[in-house]
Amino acid sequence: MAGKLKIGKLVVIGVGLIGASFALALKRARAVRHVVGVGRTRRNLSAARRLKVIDEIQSDAGRAVRDADLVLLATPVGQMAAVMAAIAPHLPPHAVVTDGGSTKRDVLACARRFFPDARFRRFVPAHPISGTEKSGAAAGFPELYRDRCVILTPQPETDADALRLVKRAWTACGARVVTLDAEEHDGIFAAVSHLPHVVAFALVNSLARRRDAGRVLGFSGGGLQDTVRIAGSSPEMWADICVANRDVLLGALDDYEDALEEARAAIEQGDAEALKQLFESARTAREKWLLKKSAEPRG
Amino acid sequence: MAGKLKIGKLVVIGVGLIGASFALALKRARAVRHVVGVGRTRRNLSAARRLKVIDEIQSDAGRAVRDADLVLLATPVGQMAAVMAAIAPHLPPHAVVTDGGSTKRDVLACARRFFPDARFRRFVPAHPISGTEKSGAAAGFPELYRDRCVILTPQPETDADALRLVKRAWTACGARVVTLDAEEHDGIFAAVSHLPHVVAFALVNSLARRRDAGRVLGFSGGGLQDTVRIAGSSPEMWADICVANRDVLLGALDDYEDALEEARAAIEQGDAEALKQLFESARTAREKWLLKKSAEPRG
Questions:
Q1: Correct CATH for B7-180 of 3.30.70.20, 3.30.70.60, 3.40.50.1100, 3.40.50.720
Q2: What is the reported pTM?
Q3: Do B204 and A232 make contact, defined as CB atoms within 8 angstroms?
């Protein structure tokens, strides 16, 4: 870690909450000289430039990366293939590519497919465990990653210096970097992140479809509000994640549906004692988990 | 509403979050002279007295209510029958009884069963739409009901002056009082409150049962934490509520499981577009709901 991190040109492809916050955090750390934003909607890019998230707008991803030092792919994971195919022929040999995707096996498969071997070695898959239910460049803020965990899933062939650069960039954003196997990563996040999103979206849909939805929701309190906060997240991003990670997510859904059926059976049978025990075990597990998280915060 | 509300003796049966906060709020409003607490665990009652939530501990509910002016039943709803049976012979004719139960049809059925007609007329069913995931007297605080909604479900035979007293008491706690039909009340709260609790408890259980639960939960972020906050709620209280309201709750669970299956089918088929539309409709509904709530807050 000799000297201060200084990235000459950062290209952010997909200037949403994740990409914008990365750029802002590196700017605040004075770790980047020039930031180019690439995206699908001119309006969002213009907002990003106005908010000084990016310094320059480029509509063509291939042209944007030609003299890049670091490229962050921060699009929904469903677009990674197209973006990688578009930039692969234009990347200079030294450039390091990283991503912010919430699934890692699929992003790695895309990278293996579209990047030649020498290029693949300079691809460092990453997943910042941070976010809010908001989307778009205007939702970005430089503290998003402070004290949060960023998971890297480097491969055996990943260049050590590329890995080091990405680690330093995330560290400059205030994050703690953890390395995981891509398979384990996807299993973990199917359970603690993808499943809860599916649950929250489905819960809102079931309430919103009632004929008396307007009146009923008017009586809701903070409990429901917290439970479905993440149903405000980007539909496109989450649809892509769920499809990309579907094998393990379906397993997590199976487990959840089993737990739900158990509660349902106790309710049907009017068995308050059995239900109390189910709720008690959930409360105890939650308390243990929160205690552990407060003792050793990892984001 | 002539003059300032002054309750001589308030008896709180069940000095948990709801009962303790009611007593504290009335004390702060100087609307009560003496508060007696009745409960199952001496330890909790001692804490309540030490914290000046109550002025006196009574172990016998019947004896406690003998010269009561207002009695709040704030036990889990599963205990309402036993408590009503115990106090019915001892209540003075003028005393008004109210409750804080989250279900209203079952509490009303108990009251009809255990209170003679003249007594039933002075029973005013109430449900404060407020709470936290914490339980016990020590969790109580006088602001719990400020700007929150309290729902009353009076019956045709309810005495006007009893209803007025209960309205004034909740108003003195800072709450807004709304009147609803008991049946409609139970339908609404099955959807916006009871169902989300079942969902949150089941979600925690499905995660906690994994062999790798400790490691997996260590990687969770704020999303999961908010989604399952209410799984910290009192297991006994919520088991009672779910069983008491099971007919409508099972209907709400049906709707939810349908919505979940729809998402599951799209995930299984790898249909990101269909999934995106489901998530989009949830996000839109949530935004509309939040906008409406911020425009006309009702607790």
A1: 3.40.50.720
A2: 0.88
A3: no
Calpha distance A66→B15 (Å, rounded): 69
> In this complex, which of A130, A205, A267 lies closest to B282 when CB atoms are compared?
A205
Whole-complex ipTM: 0.88
Query: Are B152 and B178 in contact, with CB atoms under 8 Å apart?
Result: yes
Are A134 and A284 in contact, with CB atoms under 8 Å apart? no
Task: Give the dihedral sign, CA A280/A281/A284/A290.
Answer: negative
| Burial tier of A59 (Cβ tally within 10 Å: 0-12, 13-18, 19+) | exposed
What are the sequence ranges of the domains in chain B? 7-180, 184-268
pLDDT means per 10 residues, chain B with 299 residues, are: 84 97 98 97 96 97 97 96 98 98 96 97 96 88 96 98 98 97 97 97 97 91 92 94 97 98 98 98 94 64
Q: Which of residues 104-133 of B touch A (CB under 8 A)?
A: 129-131
CA-to-CA distance for B65 and B92, rounded, in angstroms? Answer: 8
Tokens 């019915």 sit on residue? B88
Q: Which listed CATH number (1.20.1260.10, 1.10.3660.10, 3.50.50.60, 3.40.1190.20) goes with B184-268?
A: 1.10.3660.10
Alpha carbon distance B46, B48 (integer Å): 5
The tokens describing B195, both together, are: 């169902």
CA nearest to A265, candidates A275, A277, A256? A275
Cβ neighbours of A278 in B, within 8 Å: 201-202, 205, 235
